[in-house]
Amino acid sequence: MIKRHHGKNFTLLFVAGLAFSAIAERPRPNILLFFVDDMGIGDLSAYQAFTGIDDSVQIHTPTMDALAAEGILFTDTHTAASLCSPSRWGLLTGKHPWRRADVGHTLLSSKEKCFLGGEKTLPEAMQKAGYRTYGVGKWHVGLGINKQKVLTQGPLDFGFDHFFGQPHNPGINGSGPFIEERGFSALDADMKLLPVGVKGPRVKFTCAQYGQNYLDHFRKYASEVAAGGEFSGKPFFMYFSPNSNHTPYWPAEQIDGIQVIGESRTLSGESTVTKLAPLLDDHRDDQERYKLTHDSKKRGDMILENDVILGRILKWLDETDDPRYPGHKMRDNTLIVFTSDNGSDVRLHQNAERSVPAHGQLSGHKNTQFEGGHRVPFFAVWPGKIPEGKTSDLPISLLDLFATFTELAGTSPDEDAAPDSINLLPHWLNPDTAFSRKAPLITLGGKATPDMIKGEGGKDWISIRDGQFKLTLTKADFVNGTGEPVGLYDFSKTLVEDSKTNLIDNPEYAGQLKKMQKALKKAATEGRTR
Amino acid sequence: MNNFHDQTTYRKRLATGIFLSLLASLLMTVAQADRPNVLFIAVDDLRPRLGCMGDAHAISPNIDQLADQGFLFKQAFCQAAACFPSRVSVLSGFRPESIGMTGTFESEKVPAGTIALPRQFKQHGYTTVMAGKVWHNSNDDTGGWTRIRDDHGIRGGYSPGYQLKSNQDSVQNYLKSDKLPLELPRSESCEMIDYPDDLAPDGVIAQIGIDELQKLSQDNKPFFLALGFYRPHLPYTPPKKYWDLFDPDTLPVPNFNPVQNGLQEWSSHELRRYGDIPNEGDLVPGSEVFSAEKARQLMHGYYASVAFADSQIGRVLNELKRLKLNENTIVVLWSDNGFSSGDHSWWGKYTNLRTSTQIALMISVPGKKKGVESSAFVELVDLYPTLCELTGIAKPDWLEGTSFAPLLDQPDRPWKEAVFTTAHGRVPAIRTRDYLLTIHKRNKTPGGSSYELFDLRKDPNETINVVDNPEYAPTVEKLLKQYQAGWKAAQPKGMK
C-alpha cells in the first residue's frame, strides 16, 4: 500500500512564507489546471486508500501521488457529463451542458460551429480579473472555420491570450489540423504549422510530441511578465489539457530523455504490460480496428506519460523565480488542480466482475451514467494555503472551478455567468470546517455506443445526487427536468450500482426519490442552481 | 334529534343485527370467495398535506400512488376533530350529535346492540385483524377482531416512538394522565435521530401488515385488515432520513393571526405537553416565549412525519401488489382529523375550521374507476355504509352516514349539500360550499351573536367571523335552518 506522505518542503516553505510576508505580500496565485483525458479514479495510485486496488494491479503514478499529498484529495468529484465535449463545455462555462439543446450529450467536434459564445467563459472571467490566460491541448467544443478554411471563432475569442492544441481527438490515422493562436492549419512532419489550406502529413502524435510545447506557454508567460509593461504583475491561468490517456494509445517514446514506452509499473513494481493489460483487454465488436487504437499494453504508458509531463512542469515551477513574489519560486504561489474530463474508457473485461484497475469499486465507465463514467480524480494544491495531506469526501463538480477560480482571482462570476458553479474556496482553505455545497450535483451520461450493455446510459440520461443518494433517470426532458427514474442508490452502503443495490422500487425510498425528482425539476426550470 | 334511547328501537336493532349476521353466515359459504378483502388504513392527525392534494411541499409518493389508482376525495371532513370521538364515530356509524363526543365505544351513549365495523365484518365471515391505532381506546370491542397484533406501542392510541432514553423516561409523565401536570419533566416535541424505520412503532405496524398479508393470502376467507399509523401525530419522531427530505427554510409559514371576531376558546394546547414548549404565553413567532425557529421545526417535523408514514404505508401497499392481492382488495386510507400547525395561532385540532376538520380520504376498489379526483362533500361517518355496500354486507339501520359507493360509478352526480362537524366544548357546525357556521353556547361576539360565520367565497382560509355584519343575517338564518334539518336533509337527492 502507498502511504500518503507529507510534502517534504512544506514546513520550510511555510516558515519562509511567514518570514517573507513581512516583506512581500503574497500576490494572487497562478493557477494551473492539469486536465487529463479519460482517467479513471483507479488509474491514480493516490486513490488506493479509496479504491482498495491491490498493489499488484495498481498502476504507480509517483509524481501525481506526491503532488496530491501536498493538498486535498477529493473522492466524490463529478464531471458535467461522462464524455469529453459536454464535460469540457461545462467546465469552461460553469453551466450544465443539458441546459442547451445543441450541447447536451453531443460531441462538439464541429469545425464549422463553435459551441461557446452564448455563455460567458472561465478564461474570459480570468482575463477580466487580470490574469494572463493560456490553453494547451484538446479543445473539443467546436470551432468556427469558414468556407475559406479560416478560423473565425476559436479559443482566443473566448478568453485565451494564447492557445495551442487540437480541435478534437486524433483519428485512427493520426491527427488533422491544429489550432495555434488564431491559426488553424496542418503540421508538417517536424510538428511545424503549415500555411492555412496546405495539406500536411497525418501525424501520430501525443501530447508530449507537440510539446516541445508542453513548457512553451510557461516559458512564454515568464518572458511576457519579465518584459514588464501591460503584463507585469499578472498571474497566469494555465488550462493544460493533454490528450492522454484518451485513445488512440500512442504514448511518447521518451520525454526530455525520460523513457516512457514500456516503463509504466504497478505498485508492486511489475510491468503494466504483463500485469495490467490482460485485465483491461476488453472486447468489442470491431476488434481489428479497435486494436490499432486501444492496445491495452500501451495504456499504462499513457498514464505514465502524463505523470512524467506533470513532473517536468513541477520542475520548471520549482526552479523558476516568481517575478511577482520576490524570493519565491513559481511553485510557491501556484494553485494546481489535477482532474480528468470523465472516467476511464476501459470496459468490463468478460472475465472480470468489474474493471477494477481503472475504476476501483465504481460501476460503469466513460459514456455511462454510472459512477465510473463521471466520478473522477481531483486534487488541489496551494503551498501554505491549502492544508496538505487532506482527503475530502465532499461531493463537488468540475462546474465549480469557474466560481472557485474567479474567487481566487479576487472577483466573483458575473450574475449572468456560471449558473451552476459553486465557490469551493472556503472548503479548500479550511477542509475541517463544515461546508455544504448547496446545489444539487447533476451529471449527464455519455453517448450510447453499440457495445454498451443496455441500461448503462446514453442519450437522454441524467443523474442527480442528494447527499449519499444518487438518482438516475432516462428519457429525460431537460427543459422541464423530468424523466423516467430507473436507478436509486445509497452510497452510504456501497458505491456499486447494479440490480441488487438499486432501491428504485423500494417504497421506503419513494420519498427520497420524490425529493430528488423535485430538485431536478427545480434545477431545470429555474435555469440555475447557484 | 336523538331517538336511540327508545328501548323498542334498541331491541329491534339488536334483533335485526342478530338476524342479519345469521343470514350472512348462511350466505357466507356461497359468496365469500367473491367478496373483496378490505385494507383499512388509518393515519393519525393527517391534515391532507399530500402531493395528491396539491401540496407542492409534501413528499407522499406512496399515498399519491394510491390516490392515482383509486378515488380521491378532495373535500372530505371528519365529524369531530379529535382522535377519540372521530374514531368512535367512524367505527360505530354514529355522529357526535347522537352519541356525544365520547372517547370510547363502550360509552353508554353508544346504544346497546350497536355492532362496530370490524365486528360487522367478522360476523360476515371475514378474518379481522388490527394493528396500531384503530380505535383510540385499544380496549374497545376487542371481540370484533379475529386477532389483535401487538405493535409495542406504549399505550393504545398514543405511541411517541422516542429513541432517546431521556424522552422515553419523561414521556411516562404524559402517559400517567391525559392532563399532564406541567411542572413535571416533559418529553420533546421533536426528535431527529438516525435510526432504522423498523424501530419506530409505525415501522413495526408496516412489518405486521406485510406479515399479515402473507398469512391472509393463504387463507380462504376474505380479510378486513386494519392498520393504524401513529405519525404525523405529535411528537415528531421519524428517522432522520425523513427530516433530511426537506429544507425547513422553504416550507410554508402559516398565517398565525387568530380568527378576527372569533368565538372559539383556545385553552388547551396539545403542544404544551412537550418540554420544549412553554407552559404559558402565545405560541406564535415574535412572542417572548416562542420563536420562528421552533415554528419552522414543528412544520418540518410535520412534513417529515407525513413522509415517514407514507413510506411505511408504501411498504404495505407494495406487499399487497406483490401478492397480487390488490386485484381483490378494497384499500381505504383515511385520517381521523386534520392538524393546525400554528394556523390561527393554534397548534392542534379540536376546532371546526378546515385546518382541523378536513381529512385525507381515498379508496381504491377493484373494478371501479381509477385516478378520479372528486370534490363531492363526503364525511368520515360515510365509511361504514360505504364499506358495507361495496362488500355486499347489508347496511344496519342506525348508520348516520351515506354510502358514497354510487359516486364511484358516477363521480359527477350531485352529492351532499353540507357537512356537519363538532368541535371541542360541543360546538357544532355546518359547512356548505360557501359558508361555515359554528354554533356556540357560551360566548358572544361584540355584536351579541353566538355564531361564527365564515364567507368561504371571499375568505377560503377562514380568517374573519363576519356574523356581526347585518348583510349576512339572512344567510345565518338560512344556515341555521339547514343545520336544524340535519344530515339527513343534506343527503343527495334520492337518499333523503
TrEMBL record, chain A:
This protein's record includes keyword Ligase: no
Membrane-spanning segments: none
Every Sulfatase N-terminal domain range: 29-410
Gene Ontology MF: a single term: metal ion binding
UniProt keywords, alphabetically: Calcium, Hydrolase, Metal-binding, Signal
Keyword Calcium: yes
Domain of life (superkingdom): Bacteria
Signal sequence residues: 1-24
Family, per entry: Belongs to the sulfatase family.
Name the record gives this protein: Arylsulfatase
The species this protein was found in: Pontiella sulfatireligans
Lineage: Bacteria, Pseudomonadati, Kiritimatiellota, Kiritimatiellia, Kiritimatiellales
UniProtKB/TrEMBL annotation, chain B:
GO molecular function: iduronate-2-sulfatase activity; metal ion binding
CDD domains, per database record: iduronate-2-sulfatase
Record-linked Gene3D superfamilies: Alkaline Phosphatase, subunit A
Swiss-Prot/TrEMBL cofactor(s): Ca(2+)
Keywords: Calcium, Hydrolase, Metal-binding, Signal
Gene Ontology CC terms, in alphabetical order: cytoplasm
Sequence ranges assigned to domain Sulfatase N-terminal in this UniProt record: 36-393
Signal peptide boundaries: 1-33
InterPro entries per UniProt: Alkaline_phosphatase_core_sf, IDS, Sulfatase_CS, Sulfatase_N
Homology family: Belongs to the sulfatase family.
Protein name, UniProt field: Arylsulfatase
Originating species: Pontiella sulfatireligans
Organism lineage string: Bacteria, Pseudomonadati, Kiritimatiellota, Kiritimatiellia, Kiritimatiellales
